[in-house]
Design a protein that fits this description.
This protein is α+β, with helices and mostly antiparallel strands and about 110 residues long. Helices cover about 60% and strands about 15% of the residues. It contains 5 helices and 3 strands. Strands 1-3-2 form a 3-stranded antiparallel β-sheet. Strand 2 and strand 3 form a beta hairpin. Helix 2 crosses helix 4 and helix 2 packs across helix 5. It starts with a helix and ends with a helix. The mean pLDDT is about 90.
């Protein structure tokens, strides 16, 4: 797995083993602050699945719960510094793979 090798190269000691959890981190990072319902819709997963994944990410210190000033009832998520490193790295890897793909396609007319 490219992500696992790159994480070790960057000196990041912890990352979720579940690829869906990595995608959830990416979605939260791109849309933060985001609540459970919006996260489920964007990821096309059930709210129960998102709850299970976010609970684990909370326990592992990758995300944190926040309440917005204008809405004290709803709980939103945002990345911790630990997850922010992973989010940035995943973005770089995604860009590298996208560039590699386009270079491959340029060979053809």
């Amino acid at each position: 797995m490219i992500l696992a090798a790159s994480v070790k190269e960057q000196g990041i000691s912890e990352y979720p083993a579940n690829l869906t959890a990595v995608h959830v981190i990416d979605c939260i990072g791109y849309n933060e602050p985001i609540n459970n319902t919006a996260l489920a819709e964007k990821m096309d997963l059930t709210k129960a699945s998102i709850t299970k994944i976010t609970t684990r990410l909370l326990e592992d210190g990758f995300i944190e719960r926040i309440r917005l000033n204008d809405n004290k009832k709803e709980i939103h998520f945002r990345l911790t510094a630990k997850a922010q490193e992973l989010y940035v790295l995943r973005g770089k890897l995604h860009k590298q793979e996208q560039d590699r793909y386009f270079r491959f396609l340029e060979r053809y007319t």
